[in-house]
Amino acid sequence: YDLVDCESTWNPQAKNTNTNGTVDLGLWQISQHWHKIGADCSLDAQCSTAYAISLLKAGKTHLWACYRIVR
User: Fold this and answer.
1) Cα torsion for 57, 28, 66, 34, to the nearest 10°?
2) Quick check: pTM over 0.85?
3) In 3D, which of 70, 30, 65, 23 has the Cα closest to residue 48?
4) Which of 23, 32, 36, 52 is the most buried (most CB within 10 A)?
5) Residue 32 contacts residue 42 (beta carbons within 8 Å)
6) Rounded to the nearest 5°, which phi and psi values hold at 24?
7) What count of Cα atoms within 13 Å lies in the side-chain half-sphere of residue 19?
8) What does the alpha-carbon distance between residue 50 and residue 18 come to, in Å, rounded to a whole number?
């Protein structure tokens, strides 16, 4: 829960434009550049959470900047 709180403060419509111009969306701040799940899924709490869980189970915690803060 701390990861979502840090990434988006629980805002499923959160949008962050990074300094390199890429955009991160949703509760989990999923990068639209690196992850091709689409904005609809990124902005849907259930869809993005299922996708994020698959990444976490695969050991891809490094994909979230906040993971280094909340672990």
Assistant:
1) 80
2) yes
3) 30
4) 52
5) yes
6) -110, 135
7) 0
8) 24
Residue corresponding to tokens 């419509």: 13
Summarize pLDDT for 40-57 with one digit per residue, the tens: 999 999 999 999 999 999
Phi, psi torsion values for 14, nearest 5 degrees: -60, 140
Backbone angles phi, psi at 46, to 5 degrees: -70, -45
CB 12 within 8 A of CB 26: yes
